[in-house]
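To: structure subgroup
Subject: Chain for Friday's discussion

All,

I'm putting the inputs and outputs inline so they're searchable in the archive.
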Amino acid sequence: MPFPFVLPTTSAFSFSSSFSSDTHPSLPLSSSTYRGVVRDALKKHKRLPPSSQSSHVSTVIGALNGYIPYILAIDAGLNPTSQSGDWINLNTKAPPSIEWRPTLSENAVPGRERARVKVQSIDHEIAFTLSSLANSYTLVARAALHPLYVTTQATLDNQQRTASIQTATKYLLDAASIYDHIASRAERTQIPPPCSDVSPSTLRAMSSLALAEATLLAVLKDDPYPAIVAQDRNKNDREWMFKAPEIPKVRAHLFARLCLAAAEHAAQASSLCQAAGRGSSKINEGLLRYLEDLRRTCRAKACRFFGIDSEISGQVGTAIAWLQAGLQELGVESKHSAKGSGFSRFKKEWSEKREDRKVERETTWGADGGKGEETRVIELLEGKWHKLNDTMNVQIVPSIGPLLAQMPSGREIHTLKPYQPPVLDRSILEAMRAPPERSDDYGDALSSDDEGKGVSGPPGGYPESRPDYRSASTSYY
């Protein structure tokens, strides 16, 4: 948590091959220049090892923010509208032909890299660019939260933990605003999308997903139990005495409703992604599975906070029932249930160790939507409350069905601010009224898929050797 997005790659493209401007002749060349920077940044990011990608995301964000004002100026010139008080006019010489590699669509051939899709609309070029920026913000949020889940380093104190969560929340809300902006643009576009990555339903789903994750972080900031479980599993932690966490009764009920709101956003995102269709328009199974796991985790957290609320009121039996309801939402058998088997516990322990290795290697950790972490927290409280109920209170544990039926509705905490895309300064627009200083040859650059091909030599020969076996001379010597 958040979802480990993969940034797309794109082909080279020259705007001068498709557009010309009478008012700003240098605009196509400048746009091609900044787009080339984005292409190189995405290509380099893809080739970096997973442990180095998190530090490179800021470079990708800088390249995208530098290119966005120019592609929006191209869009303003095609409509045409004014930008920064300056009127832009563009003429179309030929339809653009740009290629992007989708990352959310299902792969047609398992085990092979997804094929690129051809984009012939500036609206879809803007959608791919802005969605890449939103995904980059999500990756920055993941990098900010990564120290909270590392069990091989020193545990963060409360101030550092709060700062990390606040930083991640800010970037997730920015990503949600960007996706909401792209979805509004996509709903007004008449041209069908080239793939499901930039379809209106998928963009709305990604906005709901980012909002669900940000809502869940609002709970995590004041939830002491995940930190206690992580500290208990940290091998480098030297603290041997823990203060019992205290959550006020009013806040426990509030946290439960916030978790239910996050579950509603995750369910909305899941339904929108599943409505994308089948075949080439189908969403990646990994993302669909993550959305379902996130929804289950949110509901399980809500059950846990309802249990904490009941335990504060002295109803330990009802609190245990809420924990059992949370485990049922997660699809995990309780340790105190007769149905629990040794194999299921072994499978869970193996999954936990596998997730810990992913966290250490900074790969696709958190792809389970937080199910593993929430399972450990609920099992910790369940063991504690069962011992308390068996020795002191001896209360009957009610059925979980009526409890789930009386769950209230969710409560929102975040409001999305409209995304304000950057625009070119008036002085830059005035400078682009001059004719271009050189030719626009960015479309002749090799694709990231073609750079390693080149001209191959004969089998068994050196790379620099000639591709043909025979010499042009017919002489024997």
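Points worth raising on Friday:
Residues 258 and 411 are 5 Å apart (CA to CA).
The chain has 13 helices and six strands.

D.
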